[in-house]
Request: fold
Amino acid sequence: MIGGLQRTIEGFRKKFASKAAILMYHRVIDMDADPWSLCVSPQHFAEHLEILRKHAHPISLQQLVQVHKDGNIPDRAVAVTFDDGYADNLHNAKPLLEQYSVPATVFVANGALGQAREFWWNELERILLQPGTLPETLEVNIKHEPFCWVLGKDSDYSEDAYQSDCGWIVDLYEYPTSRHSLYFTLHQLLQPLPDAEVYQVMDELLAWSGKKTVPFSINRTLSKKELLLLKQGELIEIGAHTVSHPSLSMLSKNRQQDEIMQNKIVLEEYLGQQVNFFAYPYGKYSMQTRTIVQEAGFACACTIDKNCVWHGSDPYLLPRITMRDWGGENFLKQLNQILK
Ligand SMILES: [Zn+2]
Reply:
């Protein structure tokens, strides 16, 4: 009898104490500059995977959703996810995931598939943060409001200055040049806008800078064919990430429904199978967004709220840990902190 009670208590303890983690990556690639810290080098990614194999219990997001539902999360369970749908997920990340046999879910914004144009934040970086000369003054309308910025002496940006600034990240909140503060300011202004308005501004910025769109840049997204190659095999699942990657909480209910449903329908048509998982672009959502995602028939949705997953987590607001270009030792430290 006492043994039975102990087992019950132990069962409850395990159910409530077990913690899992969902890791959020974007890109696996070596880059000189990475202002949003979205890139992990292939070398470091391999180190992360080796540590996951040795010190954690890598499972797919699908398995994680199931064990969470059953109240049976294995200790130190970890699910790997990628956001956006960059081509390097296929060319650099997939071979390493296969080598270490670690499953992953890639959340894809289908509007970017096979596009000749980079995501706007990559385009903005290329316009402002690459060496060269730009006009001294920028005048552009954003949300029907005039926006003016004087670059002054930073309109000229030398290769040497670029090399010394290319480790800059936005988290520092310090700007080596007025180009960097303009980059951050414009990013903050554009992020909440609908896709069409963002690209209208980007067109004006391109014309102002005298630069062109770059169809096959290092920042390119997956083509439709590459999406199918990425999915091939047992390890990688494709998830949804809206059509045009907007800040959903800024949109009307109808626009949110369109972005979420169209994304699901189109991806399912490409893949010939159900798409059950969703990630909120920029991690932005309202409770209305959450309800729309649930009603659209997804099994779960991921935020970028930093926390572990436990028995009490809302399956439509699953927290994730943002991955940085950490070496193995630092990665293990971060992982242990989350799962302690
Ligand atoms: Zn995203």
